[in-house]
Structures are given as C-alpha cells and as structure tokens.
Amino acid sequence: MLETRSGAVSLSHVAVMGILNATPDSFSDGGAHLDPARAADAAARMVAEGAALLDVGAESTRPGAEPVLAVEERRRLLPVLRAIRAAVRVPIAVDTTKAEVAAAALDAGADLVNDVSAGRFDPELLRLCAAARVPVVLMHMQGTPVTMQRAPCYTDVVAEVQAFLAERAAAARAAGVAPAAILVDPGIGFGKTTAHNCALLRHLDDLALLGYPLVVGVSRKGFLGELLGGRAVGGRLFATAAAVTLAVSRGARIVRVHDVGAIRDVVTVAEALLGRDPA
Ligand code: HH2
To answer: Which residue, of 60, 64, 216, 262, is most buried by count of CB atoms within 10 Å of its CB?
Structure first.
C-alpha cells in the first residue's frame, strides 16, 4: 500500500500511472498538455481508463534536452497541475528534480515527487519530501539528460543500477524519508543502450530485492523504436505492451505510461496469466 494525501494506492496489483507532460518538447506528448483545460480533460480520461495515479511534469528529460529554469518550470506546471487537481481525485506525482518546483507543486495539490535524479541534482529535494511526509520515486540515470546517451557504459548494468538505488534509498532515509514512502525505478532509457534496457527489464526481480516498490517507465521509449528498426514514436504501442508485460512478470508495481486504457488491459491480462488473484 502506498499512502498519500489523496488516499492510498494498493500495490498488491500493478498500478498504472498516466503521464501528462506540460512541456512544449517532450518526446512523445510534447505540446499536448500545455493548456490547463485540455490537460484536465486528458487526466480525467486517464482516470476513467484505469490510471491509479498520474505523473505531471514540466521539464522534458528526453535525451539531449536542455534544463529549464525553476521559474519557467513552475510557470508551465502550476496552472496545469491545479486544473488536473480540480478534475481528478487520484494521487498526482510531480516529475521534477528541483525542490523549489516540488514545494510549489505540493502546495498546488501534488501528492508525491518523482525525481529522475534521485535527489542528486538538488539535495534539498529529499529533505522536502521528508518534511512534507510525501512519497518519492528515486530513479537511476547515468549522467544528465544532456549527456546521458553519448556513450552509456557499465561493467554490470543490473548490479550497478541496484547499488545506485540502494545508495539513493539510504540517502533518502538519512534525509528523513520513511522507508514506506520510497519507490525505486531503473530509469529505462536514461543513460542506457538498448541492450542495457533489455537486461534491466529481464532482471527487474534483482532490483525488487531492494524491498522498495518498483516503478518502471518504458512507454513509447526510443529503445522500442530501435528494436523495431527505427519505428516512430506513434507506432510503439504494441512494443510498449510487450515491455510492460515483461516488467509486470518480473515485479514492477507501478507502470508509467501514456496509453492508459490499452496498458491497463495489458496489465490485467498479464497478471491473470501469471496466476495472480483478480483485482
Ligand atoms: N521517464 C521519463 C520521464 N520521467 N520518471 C520515472 N520515474 N521513470 C521514467 O522512466 C521516466 C520518468 C521520460 O518520458 P516522458 O515523460 O514521456 O518524456 P520527456 O522526458 O521527454 O518529457
């Protein structure tokens, strides 16, 4: 069970987290959710389709993306977040690496923080999560979004990601975050080749041994396009479904996706095939 200010999310079954990016340049939905009313409609649709929680971000972290200033991130994020908050009751994560942005988002109704830097870019962020008593997603990334895809390199990607997440979880606990409020994520596509991403998905069960719920984000990502010979973003739904199925079978507890309705079905059938009790 993941406790949040907007209620608890049961993790006894895999939860679907719907992605809403209030950005002009996200690799997949860039520009689609900049307008608060449209974003709120999209959020309500995602919840109706089975999203147990939402993830709202205002800074693209696609490979090569340049960072945006906190003032600009807040300017994009807050109107969209407030409109979504008014439209849905499920917990909302704010996807940011900056404590200042996270604090404003928590004030505007967000319930948890999703930090793709796992507290490395802004040391204040973990202290904020502790003080506000909100859950935090700690994600692995090699390098920064600007540099991460130049030459990803590991001796043993699974062991290194596992050690990183263990170290960042310990840092979060040292900052005062409750163990039950920590989630971890291998950061698919963040400083990884296609082979690294496949190895991490195949060995997710090793990461689950850390004892924190696993969040996994494969939706429409570049490695799926590469596996399909350069398929464009819009044609990666079935590839996403395949990767989500593997992630579910290997212990993911939350899957972060754009196509909520379709992937909700994928998750339901995957869990039934695995012999898990119906939700
Ligand atoms: N992936 C993206 C952004 N945030 N957060 C977590 N915890 N895990 C992920 O895999 C993850 C994430 C990148 O995807 P998207 O938000 O669709 O694109 P962009 O970064 O271009 O906004």
So the answer is: 216
**pLDDT score for 237:** 98
**Cβ(102)–Cβ(125) under 8 Å?**
yes
| Mean pLDDT across 72-88 | 96
* Best probe residue, ligand 1, of 253, 256, 258, 259 (max atoms within 8 Å of C-beta): 256
Spatial separation of the C-alpha atoms in residues 273 and 254, rounded to whole Å? 18
Q: What's the whole-model pTM score?
A: 0.96
Domains and CATH numbers, the chain: 2-273 (3.20.20.20)
* Protein residue with least CA distance to atom 17, ligand 1: 28
Q: How many residues does the chain have?
A: 279
pLDDT of residue 277: 79
In this structure, the strands spanning 53-57 and 15-21 are parallel
